[in-house]
Structures are given as C-alpha cells and as structure tokens.
Give the backbone structure.
Amino acid sequence: MPEYKLPDPGEGLTEAEIVSWKVKVGDVVKINDIVVEIETAKSLVELPSPYAGAVSAILVQEGETVEVGTPIIAIGDPAAAPAEAKPAPTSTEAAGESGGGDEPPMKTLVGYGPRDAGSTRRPRKGGTPPSEAGVATQTQLQGAFTPGGVQPQEVVEADEPAVPVVSARSGEPQADGPLHVLAKPPVRKLAKDLGIDLRQVTATGPNGTVTRADVEGHTGGAAAATSPSSPARARSGERETREPIKGVRKMMGQAMVDSAFTAPHVTEWITVDVTRTMRYVEKLRTHRDFRDVKVSPLLVVARAVCLAARRTPEVNATWDEAAGEVVFKNYVNLGVAAATPRGLVVPNIKDADQMSMVELGGAINALAATAREGKTQPAEMSGGSFTITNVGVFGVDAGTPIINPGESAILCFGAVRKQPWVRTKNGKDKVAIRSVTTLALSFDHRLVDGEKGSRFLADVAAILEDPANSLLF
C-alpha cells in the first residue's frame, strides 16, 4: 500500500503544516486529484495525489507540522474502498494522462516529472467548477488614492470561493450535522481559532454557506473582535495568549533579522509634488488599452523604478560576500511587498523592465490577487532584484524599510495627500494646493554610496513629478 510522503514544495523547504485535508478515509482518488492543502514558510500549496486508489488512512492531522519525507496519507487499491464511498471529484488531468482509475501510479508532483503546462487551477472538493468560477478577480494591492491618502479598499478580505470542511479522522463517531459544510477559508480559520465545529453552526449564506456572521453568532458575538493575529481576551478570559511562530511569519522574521544585521542600511527621503502623475493616472484609467487593468499610482512608481535603475545599476545589484563580487543584473525582477493575513510576502514580477505599461499593470494586478489569496508560490518570491513597499495604503507618509535579502535597495512609497505647496512660476513664489507624497529609499551602503542612492531617488522623483520626464531615460 503506497504511502504519500510530504514532498519539497520548492526552494529547499524542510517542513510544512497540514492546513486542511480535501479527502477522507474511503474516498477514491485519481492521479493529480488535490488531497491536501499545506502551509510552508512561504505560501499555501495544494498537493495532488501521485497515486490512484482509495484513501485507507490519514497519517497526519490538520494543524500538525511535519518534515519533508514524512508519510502523510496512505492510498490503497480502489477495490478496497467501502461500497458507499464515492470517488473524489475529478480534477483537470495532466497532459498525456488518460484519466482512468486503472492507470499505473506515477509521480507528477513538482520536480518529479511531466505536468500540465497550462495554468488551469484544479477545483477544490465541493468548490465551484472552473467553468463557473472563472479567473479570480484581479484585485490590485494598491488601489486609487483618496484625498486623505488612505486606501481602505485594499485591506478588505479577499472574496474566495467557499470550500467544504470535512473530517479527516477515521474510526471515530462523527458529530451531528452534515459531513460537508461550505465555508470560505477565512471563515474556516476563524472557526478553527475559536474551537468551533462548523457542522454545528447554522448556515445562512448562499447555497448553505457558513458565513463569518454565522460563526460569530454561534459564539454569542465573542468572535466579533477576534482576528487570527490578535486573539480576544473575551474569548478565553486570559490576560495573555500565545501563538506559535511558524510559516510565513517565521521566514519573514528571520529574513529581516539577517538583512538588518548583515547589510549596512542607509535611508534617504524626498517629498514630491505628484499632481501631474495623479492626472496621468486618471487618463490611463479611461484609455481603451487599460480597460482590463486596474490602474493606480503604484504603476507609475514601478515604471519609474525600472527606468531609473538604468542610470544607477547598483541599486539593482547584489553583494556576493562568499565570492567577493558585486553581481550586476541586466534585468529587473520587481518585488512588491504584500501584507497578507499570514504575514509579509514579497512576490516579484520577472523582467518588469521589459514590459509595456499595460503589461506591467496587468502583472501588478495578478501579483496582488495571488498574494491576497495566499497562493503565491515559492518560485514567485525568489530571484527578486528590487522591491517597492507601499505604506500609503495605510495612510502612512514614509518609513525606513528593511532591504529584502539578496537585494541592495528598497523604495517606500507613502500616502498621497492634498496640501499647500510652494511653486515658483515666472520668478514668483505662489502657494497652491497640490498632491504630495514622500519617497524613502533604503540601500546597502556596501555597493550603493550616497551619491548613487541620491541620484536614483532623484530620478524616480523626477518621473513622478512629471511623467513626461520618462522620455529622457
């Protein structure tokens, strides 16, 4: 009876947490059917089965963290499944597979062999079929700026499809209520944090979906003030609660410590009149080429960074301590820091400097949507060469960002605000209300000296002050 061992999802990761099982004992699965969702130090990953057969045992329970190579599920002969067991939902088959239940087991996971070159996402068990679900709405990480600089629409919960919650335990009597309960991932996480069995919650959502309000109502409102990162005192009555440091948060913390105490950081600021950029953004939003792209000032900032890096390549280079070399990169893999419920992630857009404005805008949209769903893969967070962090989404003016490990600089983009600004016209100073923002550049002083850092920051500011200056680069 084959045992499915936890594979390395990528980037040499050594362990992962079992988040949720998509099958139960007795289910019949085919090769490449999704069987489990895991959380690594970088992302949430859905793992397909490398075997065809009946699930005979769940070897690791949800919430447990195990090392790569640990058996997590046993899959046997389909004939051994109980008579009443129904086959698991059929997923998109890999290229060249017949899809029959009698095909020989073969490993098709990452690094194991051929897989479908397409990007169609396999449906979760009980979820909306791909033909109905469509592509996830591409919600851009940084949205349109309000006059006050705050963009609250960018921190709302992502609208994810509801998925069934099933028991992975065998040999134990099931609780009352239906076996399959539809609930969105954030609702499942909230219920798990509160110790609530979703099968006991009365569902009021569409098609019997359990909503957040249903969970909060089930606890008499105690969950209303609870979030995954800040457990409510009212829930337990304790003055303190503890939360394990793991997954993305653990990786982020270690990376920031390593960077802060390895690279000598220097930060410079500049305040810029971006009134013309804001007008330019409004024009782009009405342009026919951008009808499918959500445009924000971040797009102009991203373009400015790619252009300015041509004149100051040191900000896009890497200090290789082991080799005693500075590695200059003839490409810009542009990272955009994204705050997610699981912690900070920095996916990057490969070869952003080679993209048109339309392509770059679409890439930023897709990057943000994937990050918000928690589906950013390890490969999408590796190989970055420069990072932008947008604190303006929270109404913050500026900060001193820590350089992403392996890079030499990071640009902090602050809130855009309406404020009095002195302009000189025809030799006379006049005060006018303008749109103003602050940029902060942190750089590694080992390879970016003050002159180079200042020149790069001034170049970015010049493009934001007047987008027409981009023609000079």
